[in-house]
Specification:
single chain, 291 residues, mainly alpha, globular
Length: 291
């Protein structure tokens, strides 16, 4: 298989495994809608099929792009807008995975670019993500306070203006530190101790929830709930997480809390998918294409 094709395959594998993981607090799984009333597992599968169609092309865009890294961002975004439109057509207007389009198009574009350079390690790819998005927080959020704006602000923009929260933009500009520092290590730790991939995904989710600026949680439930989510996730990890009875009991109890209080850590879930992708890519030892 062409190494570029493998990138798209691993991306699709990662998002399907994440959405298929059960149980997850407040999130859609094959057995529950979580805190969501407008989406279910089958809708996520249809949405994921849309996203997967562009994955190979985006990796090729990154591989073939010869300009500076920052000039790749508008190219990826232009393609991402088309994918979002199709996603909304398939989901009848429900936002299932818009955040994943942004995140994975960056990851795949960066992977292709890193592959062309001959170094597509996790470190090289995340550094390339940072290069592509260099200055994005200041350009897109830093000027909001001084620019005229109406009611068309996104949730992320409102949270930046109100609380200085940079969300996913800050995460990618810093080179995905939550993924490399929390998500991937949690996956490898659980798999190394004999856990299943489902166990590893759930552990990574809670590890990420301890630190991620999850704008989905904050916009739905506020800062106090966000802090509660981080504290609870930390307690679950400290109790031993998914490989202990106590940890799983805490997770089950927290699932009930999230459903009752409309809490959905979707931002952390997206970063679980990113963690899986980079973990799988590192495992595959994919060769660099012959130029």
């Amino acid at each position: 298989m062409n190494p570029i094709d493998t990138l798209g395959e691993l991306a699709t594998r990662s998002i399907l495994l994440e959405v298929s993981c059960h149980p997850k607090p407040g999130l859609v799984t094959p057995f529950t809608r979580g805190a969501h009333r407008d989406m279910d597992y089958s809708l996520f599968l249809r949405s994921s099929a849309v996203l997967s169609q562009g994955f190979r092309d985006v990796a090729v865009m990154g591989y073939e792009h010869t300009g500076d890294a920052r000039s790749l961002l508008p190219i990826l975004r232009e393609r991402g807008i088309l994918t979002e439109r199709r996603m909304f057509e398939v989901t009848s207007g429900v936002n299932t995975q818009k955040g994943l389009v942004f995140l994975f198009y960056l990851l795949l574009g960066a992977s292709g670019r890193a592959m062309r350079s001959g170094d597509h390690t996790v470190q090289a790819i995340t550094a390339t993500v940072a290069d592509i998005t260099d200055g994005i927080v200041e350009r897109e959020l830093g000027t909001l306070g001084s620019s005229p704006h109406g009611h068309g602000l996104t949730k992320g923009e409102k949270l930046y203006l109100e609380h200085g929260i940079t969300g996913i933009r800050g995460e990618v500009e810093r080179g995905l530190p939550s993924v490399t520092g929390m998500g991937i290590p949690a996956i490898r730790d659980v798999l190394g101790r004999g856990g299943t991939i489902n166990d590893a995904i759930l552990q990574a989710l809670f590890a990420l929830m301890t630190t991620v600026e999850d704008t989905n949680v904050i916009s739905r439930c506020g800062l106090d709930t966000y802090e509660m989510v981080k504290d609870t996730a930390r307690e679950v990890i400290e109790a031993g997480g998914v490989l202990t009875q106590g940890g799983m009991r805490m997770i089950s109890e927290f699932n009930d809390v999230c459903e009752k209080r409309n809490i959905s850590p979707g931002g952390s879930a997206d970063l679980v998918s990113a963690s899986l992708y980079l973990h799988f890519l590192d495992e595959e030892e994919i060769a660099t294409p012959q130029q």
